[in-house]
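Quick question about two entries, pasted in order.
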Amino acid sequence: MELRHDGAWYHISPWGLSWDDENYYLVGYDAEAEKIKHYEPTTYKTMKEIFKRSKEKYADNVFILEKFEPKGSFKEITYSQFCKDVIGFGTALTRKLKLNNDRVIIIGENTYHWYVSYMTMLCGAGIAVPTDKELPENEILNIIERSRATAVIYSTKEAEKIKKIVDAAEGVKYFIQMNSSQEPDGKFIGLDYLIEEGTALVDGGDNSFMDIEIDPDEFKVLLFTSGTTAKSKGVMLCNRNLAENINAVSAYVNLKEEDRLFSVLPLHHTYESTIGFLLPFAVGTSIAICQGLKYIVPNMQETHPTALLAVPILVETLYKRITATIKKSKKDGLVNSMIHVTNALKTVGVDIKRKVFSEIHDNLGGKLRIIVSAAAPIDAKVGKWVQDIGIMFLQGYGLTETAPIAALTPEFNPKVGSAGKPVISAKAKVYNPNENGEGDILIKSPTLMMGYYEDEEETKKVIDADGYFRSGDIGYIDKDGFIFITGRSKNVIVTQNGKNIYPEEIEMLLEKLDEIKEVMVYGKEPENNSRKEAEELIITARVIPDKEKIIKSFTFWFAIVGIIGIILNLVSFDDISLFIGLNPILNALSSSKACCDIINSTPYLWYILSMITMIGYGLVIDALKNLIRKNNSLTLH
């Protein structure tokens, strides 16, 4: 592959094995200590620096595509318009509303004004507090109080929820509604109104907002990681954390101006707000905003994205739907054969995958070339399939605390199944590995957070004296430096004989069964000393079945076994019709003289059918009937 940088970086040996004072092994991989060849990375320090550059360089490029009317068409908004709105909004906030470095809640679905609001904060208007729109009123209020926010920017869809907390949110001076031109009315004001007011000041020569100097290490973003209770953690990020994410990704992935990202994940998560927003903005790329999960395919067909940021469940859902359609059309054999053929051709430099699998590509917009999965492990089979049909499959790894990227699979050296290599500025190591090399993943990176908000004690627990962050993930690092995540340290089940069981691995295996919708594996204490080893945990899987899939999968066999059972008078019609709506067929066959004559004239057939019926009905139908009729979930031991 042709790389932007023709040279290579030479460093000391990347691997080390040593003892520390507590006598445990410390095995690590340092991306800076490997002789590697990668794209030449960018060297940004702040988002303000990126903003100024993109404003000038990509002014005429389309930045945002969004449907503002459900049945309308996608509207295109250029970099020039976006930057003008950011400057206008920032000027109004700082000059009109006198908000200077205040904490500002941003809450709402992915929409143009969310992007404007977040960038305005990063460029000097205040400290952004991105908040989950799914939170109930009391938890939103909790975040407002904990962050000491003085303004709340909210989408129109959240208006009713916000109105309910206005009186209780005494510290909030302004409630700013997106897509609203409302003039000041008590604490309420429209965002469009503020943009107009600020733009008028700018047109009159006010450059105060653009003159604000940004300290790369200044606190600029506050994110609450899990829930909003008093025990939840607030992650503090600075401009350098975000800029270093862009620098890191630029070394592993060559995103181009002509690319288009498809935004489907919520922006209040750093995965989407950093990699799905700030990164493409730095490159001059456009972003198409999805209307919602049920609109993914039609929106992709309308906007023709080239890249998709996803979580495993989204990729797996696409995989299952596409493969199910292929199987239904009885083309699965042909597709599998063509996968083998195109893979063989690709090894000798001939890549015809997009042409061969054009029908699949067309369903996804026709131009999709990259899918990035992150946030959780994914079945390697799914990632391999994505590559097999001609789409580059990459995996990222990180946390909110790393803003979020800590590792990524390079597009020029992907390894499906891994969580990626530490990004070029990062180091990763395994703390106290077991006999399989698995242990706690530790990360050191310039993307690492400033610390937990107002919680120095908790910060010291997770960041050691050498600057390594305890991720809470269990995994190993292979000889090539790729990280593999096998579970979460908090979830590990330790058996009586000291064996570590990682629930995530078992869950991933069980989720391969189409008949299982959701599953949770955990260690359950035995009830009433039901086991001899009363102290040993029982590895338990809590399963929510997919009833529709079960019925579809077994309908044919239900019918066969049921028909035989009715003919032999071993089961009642009502038992069988519970599962399948074949009343007329079953009635006809069960009263058929021809069927009875065949059975009566062949004695051995009677016994064979009896055995099939007893086994089939007893083991299959009865079990599944209980599953479907009586349970919403099932415990397996």
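Here is the second entry:
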Amino acid sequence: MRKLFLYPIILLVVSCTTGPMGRTNRYLTYVPSNYPEAKAVILLEEGQSTIEVKTLSVFQRVHRIIKLFDKSCFDELGNVSISYNRSYESIVSLKAWTIKPDGRVISVNDIYEETVVDLSGVNDVKRKVIVFPGLEEGCIIEYDYTIQSKLPGPRGWIFMHVYPTLLSRFTLIMPEGWAYLYHCKNGTPKERVEEMVSHGGIDWAAFIWEMEDIPPLKEEPCSPPLVDIAPSVYFTPASIFGMNVRMGWRDVAKFVEESYLDGSFKSHKLESFAHSETMGCGDALSKAKKLYSFVQKNIRYVAISLGLGGWLPTPPEKVMDRRYGDCKDKAVLLVNLLRSEGIEAYPVLVRTRDEGLLDETIPSLQFNHAIVKAVIGGKSYFLDPVYEFLPFGSLMPNCYGVRAFVVGAGERYFEDITVPPAFYNALKVVLVGAVNDDGSLKGKMKMQFSGYQAVLSRSLLSRLSEEERFKNFEALLKSYRPEANISNFELSNLGDLDSSLTLIFDIDIGNYAKVAGEYIFVPTSPIPSDIPSFSESERKYPVYLDFPFTVTFEETLSFNRPVAIERKSEPRISSDWGSFVVFEDIRGTKLVLTKFFSLKVIEVSPRQYKGFKKFLDTVRAKDNEELLLRAR
């Protein structure tokens, strides 16, 4: 970790030669001798962040030149997505082209814009999609774009990708009086300082980091965020306009406490509303649930990051009046409403798991989300009023297993948000049916979803019509049982977040069981296919999973004649990773079968990987075994 200072300056010409002419043409003859199996090679990638003094914004420029050697990579590299948050970012320039192997240049005309929507219905992230024309083996694609950000901090830079890279360079251009601490992770790029002449009465300097001949990142399913495993450089501010802004965690705590728990946020209007909204609630927990539900359902989420809006919340009374706000606005509003009812509550800042690990050695605003901690009856509840279908006391999976920064809790800044037990995220399936002599089955099935399983299902089903729900769910069942048909589809508790989401329907499955004389082969219901599958024998990086969960199948099947179990399959598998249990029993003409699977962990180290893979492989093998019955 080092500090970037501005030295006496003379001259620097910082330029990235772009366009279909110049050095790009010499790449046409390039052959990847060091990477003969490479389907593509990144010949050059350049990033540049320039601080704009007048508006305190940053211009982030990216330029890449990629040569394609195998058509199997066309689908992945032929469409390039550029994401930006429209609330504080805008794309100010964008150009791209394809260079054919014979040197002909085809400019890109097809650039589309997409809206990225998450489970909350949030649509602040936009994505420009570049569609490159005329791709063929041996061609080159090149693109160059600049994003203007209203947040006065440069983006970091990642030097490694899934394709080999010949040269990756990042340049930070800063005015006099500005300084940043920079931090290199997972590798040490070469660094140098180059000097520039004074411009506009301000002296400038460029700080450059680069790496050469970078091997491809090993692709492994369920890997950690790229920033945690690839060589990278990132920044935290130290000086702006000559003013020291370098902070310790105590300084960070003081800044966010003054911003998030501003005494002026208290108001008679908020107190009156809280009293009115919770009238009739018998205890503090009921009041907290009522206020949480109000903020969750009635304050629309809109990201607001104008100027310091990326860090400072909007006064809660204003959020109430206009009925919208971002995550920190909704969190601060909920804190004030809870405190109006005498409930202990704090804003909480988190860096979600998908954004990489929080580095506690670098006191700074590394956080990307705000939630709430409430303490009721001595028990702590973490609340996220942003997401429409989260029950009280629940969080999105990427907020579990992280270190939270609690605002206003004294010297104890950090608190672990522990991962909930597997049974919290549960799917239970109950099937009661009759198996006919030809092996077909008719019966009734009930499916119950709780925890994040319910959040996912509610998010999908709430956006569909009745007919669309039926077709969607029938298609899902047919992916397991192609011959399955359902009818009399009933859905309950869609809006009751404290109850399990329940689906009940009649089911008809032809060829359910295989009948061979007196023998009946009964397939046991498979564990859902979202159980992770791994083929490699070893891992370089940890396994990152979304959330722990359980799945339970209970089947009661009736036959037209008495049956006996000819071949049992009752595995009892238990480990640190989870468990798998099957229980089979015959009661006259009825078969009672129970199957239970649990996955307890969300992270597995490379050292633990072999044991974890063995557990999953054993479960899959046992899960696919048929049950053999014999008619008596």
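Reply: The longest helix spans residues 284-298. Confidence is low (pLDDT under 50) at residues 1-18. Hope that helps.
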